């Protein structure tokens, strides 16, 4: 079966580079949502903990329960707000305050320009009053930048808005809250970091999504996707491969099937140019649910060693390439 190699040294290199940006590993909150961007929730959680990371961010309470033992704090981004001694939950709207369990630990998300989740700045006073009335424990204030990976001024006006929000929150008496707004792109372009945490997602996994014009650090891809050979056959010139016979052999060739398909989260997309693997082999014909065909007799072949390179061929982004990979694929730390 297809398998994924998780490079521990590359992961630790990335975390170390980010720690240098923040000033301390204690300020890193590793984002583990969606199976750690496809890298393996518990696998990456354990590695991050062993490196010294104390904080994590996940999407659901279920994810949080699986990795809670590795960290001092775990922030849940998008689930019902319940009372828990270790977990904190994101308030994404005024309505969420009303629905929250009394005594829950919460972090208030404020919409400073992304216009996706979070209360509006105009709702801040009402939100703080609601938190007090519901006897919730406000442990954090956060926002999310919409264009930190672009060469524009939008990051700066969002930062200015967020600074004003944090000042109001502390003036209202919530002086012990932790403050965090930076994602991977923001921290990679920041020279003087002065917040309590940075939420590091794609950067930890080895991808710098900033334009090349930025003078920034070098990261190393953590994941490699490998496949195993299932069968091999000799095709004659003119014979065709797979559903619809979309590939025709131009010469006699040895073709093998390998155990990867769209059922594993690989991409079926019909593009004008065939996908080339990390080893330069073209996927021949259409991707099936469980198989691809390559002109190779090797027992194992590396399909992806850099998700950014794969994404360019597939017309998408590195995030989608890694998160699409099915959790049933074995992940091995190397």
UniProtKB/TrEMBL annotation:
PANTHER family: ALANINE RACEMASE (PTHR30511), ALANINE RACEMASE, CATABOLIC-RELATED (PTHR30511:SF0). GO terms for molecular function: alanine racemase activity; pyridoxal phosphate binding. Residues 222-334 form the Alanine racemase C-terminal domain. This is Alanine racemase (EC). Its cofactor is pyridoxal 5'-phosphate. NCBIfam families: alr, PRK00053.2-2. Substrate binds at residues 116, 289. Its EC number is 5.1.1.1. Keywords: Isomerase, Pyridoxal phosphate. The modification N6-(pyridoxal phosphate)lysine is found at residue 33.
């Amino acid at each position: 079966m297809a398998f994924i190699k998780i490079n521990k040294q590359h992961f630790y290199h990335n975390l170390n580079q980010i720690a240098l940006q923040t000033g301390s590993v204690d300020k890193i909150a590793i984002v583990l949502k969606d199976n750690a961007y496809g890298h393996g929730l518990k696998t990456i959680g354990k590695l991050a903990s062993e490196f010294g990371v104390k904080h994590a961010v996940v999407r659901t309470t279920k994810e949080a329960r699986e990795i809670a033992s590795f960290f001092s704090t775990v922030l849940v981004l998008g689930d019902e707000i319940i009372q828990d001694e270790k977990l904190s939950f994101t308030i994404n709207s005024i309505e969420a305050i009303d629905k929250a369990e009394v005594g829950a630990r919460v972090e208030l998300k404020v919409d400073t320009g992304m216009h996706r989740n979070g209360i509006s700045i105009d709702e801040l006073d009402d939100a703080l009053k609601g938190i007090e009335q519901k006897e919730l424990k406000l442990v954090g204030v956060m926002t999310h930048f919409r264009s930190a990976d672009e060469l524009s001024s939008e990051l700066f006006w969002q930062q200015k808005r967020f600074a004003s929000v944090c000042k109001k929150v502390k003036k209202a008496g919530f002086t012990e809250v932790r403050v965090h707004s930076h994602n991977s792109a923001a921290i990679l372009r920041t020279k003087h970091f002065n917040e309590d945490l940075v939420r590091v997602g794609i950067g930890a996994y080895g991808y710098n999504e900033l334009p090349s014009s930025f003078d920034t650090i070098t990261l190393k891809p953590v994941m490699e996707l490998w496949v195993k050979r299932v069968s091999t056959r000799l095709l004659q010139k003119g014979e065709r491969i797979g559903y619809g016979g979309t590939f025709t052999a131009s010469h006699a060739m040895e073709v093998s099937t390998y155990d990867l398909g769209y059922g594993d989260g690989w991409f079926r997309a019909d593009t004008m140019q065939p996908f080339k693997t990390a080893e330069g082999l073209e996927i021949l014909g259409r991707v099936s649910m469980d198989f691809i065909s390559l002109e190779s007799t090797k027992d194992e072949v590396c399909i992806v060693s850099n998700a950014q390179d794969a994404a360019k061929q597939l017309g998408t982004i590195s995030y989608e390439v890694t998160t699409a990979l099915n959790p049933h694929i074995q992940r091995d730390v190397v």
